[in-house]
Model the fold of this input.
Amino acid sequence: MHRSFLLGVLGCVGCAGAGSGSVRPYVAGNSQPRVRPGIDVLLTDSAGLMRHRHVGLVTNQTGVDAEGISDVARLRSAGVHLVALFSPEHGFRGAADPGAAVASSKDSATGLPIYSLYGSSSAPTDEMLRGIDLMLVDLQDAGARYYTYLATTVAVMRAAGKAHLHVVLLDRPNPIGGMVQGNVLDPAFASSIGLLAVPMRHGLTLGELARLARSDLGIDVQLTVIPAKGWHRSASADQTGLPFVAPSPNLPTLESLFHYPGLCLFEGTNLSVGRGSDRSFEQIGAPWLDTTAVLAVLRKTPLPGVRFESVRFTPHRPGDGKYADTTLAGIRLEVTDRSTYDPPAVAVHLLSAIRSLHSDQFGWIPAHFDRLAGGPDLRRQLDLGTAPEVIVKGWRPALDRYMDRRKSVLLYPDGT
Done:
């Protein structure tokens, strides 16, 4: 038996250790990427997995090799028999608005069907899977619990398991590294924006999340993860030498990805998160926000690794229905030290200060906030006036249990 296939049956090929965005390189002058994404590892080390198979591919604009060439082009040039494409939220090219239903279509370049898994169906149907022997998955996770690509991956795993199809996930680095922060989701509040009992910033790759989902959710499927070769958890996207492709329209930069595990909570309030501006998920705002007063409260508590700035911005076609074409008073965040910045903790401090100073104007979108926060506890604590430091400290026991629970799914080392 081919050695790579044998390892694949065990759940991982080439494990590195136990325990509509444009493509642009992060590391100037580095012609040889230091990290190889799963698509490159598959085609050079484990191509036997696809021999004599009819292959379906779940991907979008993030599915590219180390040179920025699309998975579709690489697989077809390697002689792989691709028969269908599948796309997650935002569509195959990553241009659809957040939450917008995407219709199935046909790829004009190849003539292959593109089955949308974020429209009339959220999982592959029997008809979509007809004639397929193997499902490939290659999506770039954002590093935060709220992202829907894991839910799509799990839906594919479940459908493939029922159809007795092998799922091969082509892994990619976590773009914001392997730090773990925030509260752990209450499984009673699982949803497509929070499927597993993981923290807001989970510190895993999509491949590791898929392995955890198979265990936690009891999914009966043959799953092989092809790890990204050469990645370690202390490395963020701009330290890999790989091209950067924005995972979705409102996360256009690495800066926005670092803030997303915290500022996404404001989606469950009546404040803007900057959708429709040039700094989405780097700023929050509202017409009534007293930024001077809020910043004065924040300065009373050390919040390392981040700088705050009072700004004004105007959302255009924000997509979330908040303050379109209205000039907002805002607070912009800038990461100054990735090693000490805690986005969920900073978000709790911001929420506490704004709710206290603007009790008449501030409002929750309760059901949505609770889905994002992994349950109602955070909202209730803030409503009771619980100090942010107390809230964040209370997350520690569940985080410790999570760190222990995830050990069996880890594929990458912690350091250099």
In short: The first strand starts at residue 24 and ends at 25. The longest helix spans residues 343-357. Residues 105 and 114 are 5 Å apart (CA to CA). The radius of gyration is 21 Å.
